[in-house]
Specification:
Elements lengths: L17 E3 L2 E3 L7 H5 L8 E5 L5 H13 L4 H6 L2 H4 L13 H6 L7 E4 L8 H5 L3 E6 L2 H14 L9 H10 L7 H14 L3 E5 H6 L1 H12 L5 H10 L2 H5 L34 H14 L12
Parallel strand pairs: 3-4, 3-5, 5-6
Antiparallel strand pairs: 1-2
Bound molecules: adenosine-3'-5'-diphosphate (A3P).
């Protein structure tokens, strides 16, 4: 089942931030709430969970290649990543809702993406003891990436200027809520739910092959050396950037004239955006919010 992209659509109005059970959301991700919460996960479903802009597409593409790269080569040239790995909570008028896409996925396992904080995940994923992969990215690069994304993702609230955006990020007034609560909530879940693999964008940048090995270990996969090499090359930033099946260029609610979904793909781009004063204020505030010494992020590699 595809997303229903046959006709060119106008951009829908930008969503407005609303407080949804204590978490910033827009109606595009809550309108389908009942179906989302009643979603029936299967035991072999794999959920890819992230705060937006933490490397969701990168890890989704890796998983897709690991599971289906060899068996369905035509998939690689004809189905965009957002149809292969449905976005559970999305519901935009005139597009097929994420729950329907996921329901009708013909693959096994089904790969499903969400940006939900841990408390919003439909209960069937826990009941079915599904494998979950959480990807986290350091807050400074994450907010920079999100800022740029909100300019191009026309269903997101207006980003406004950088300094007010940064303030809102620190206050947690973002779609999918506070980055601090998100990464901590999922980290805490990992202590009690063993089928959760928590990984970091920075580690992926440092050594993609090593992180793919860890993923395979978690998933019980053993690709050949040749296959692994192919995947590692295929998911390099430059290759994904020019791959129309991975770069979102056909997704209807994004503005590609001025922006690019595959923007920079680096650790440390925050240094090109934060002033020294903003960085100091951010670090002070960060220390107050990130009190768990076992959860550490790197802002450079
Ligand atoms: P930047 O905006 O910093 O470039 P998500 O998929 O969660 O929306 O995350 C998007 C971010 O991941 C973007 O960050 C994008 O460039 C980066 N990204 C996507 N694929 C990547 C890859 N293969 N290597 C490195 N970064 C990648």
């Amino acid at each position: 089942m595809s997303l229903n992209l046959d006709k060119k659509m106008d951009f829908p109005p930008r969503g407005e931030l609303l407080d949804f059970h204590g978490v910033g959301m827009t109606h595009y991700f809550t309108d389908n709430w009942e179906n989302i919460q009643n979603f029936q996960a299967r035991p072999d479903d794999i959920l890819i969970a992230t705060y937006p802009k933490a490397g969701t597409t990168w890890v989704s593409y890796i998983l897709d290649l690991l599971y289906f790269g060899q068996t369905s080569p035509e998939r690689q040239t004809s189905i965009p990543i957002y149809s292969r790995v449905p976005f559970l909570e999305i519901s935009i008028p005139s597009l097929v809702p994420g729950t329907d896409l996921a329901d009708k996925l013909p693959t096994s396992p089904r790969l499903i993406k969400t940006h939900f904080p841990v408390q919003f995940v439909p209960k069937s994923f826990w009941e079915q003891n599904c494998r979950i992969i959480y990807v986290a990215r350091n807050a400074k690069d994450n907010v920079v990436s999100y800022f740029h994304f909100d300019h191009m993702a026309m269903i997101q609230p207006e980003p406004g200027d950088w300094s007010s955006y940064l303030q809102r990020f620190m206050e947690g007034k973002m779609v999918w809520g506070s980055w601090y609560d998100h990464v901590n909530g999922w980290w805490k879940k990992k202590q009690t739910y063993s089928k959760l693999h928590y990984m970091f964008y920075e580690d992926m940048i440092e050594d993609t092959g090593r992180e793919i090995d860890k993923l395979c270990c978690f998933l019980g996969l053993s690709p050949s050396a040749e296959e692994k090499k192919q995947i590692t090359v295929g998911v390099q930033f430059d290759n994904m950037k020019k791959n129309d099946m991975a770069n979102y260029s056909t997704f209807p609610v994004m503005e590609f004239k001025m922006h690019s979904f595959m923007r920079k793909g680096k650790v440390g781009d925050w240094k090109n955006h934060f002033t020294v004063a903003q960085s100091e204020e951010f670090d002070e505030d960060y220390k107050k919010k990130m009190r768990d010494p076992t959860l550490q992020f790197r802002t450079e590699v």
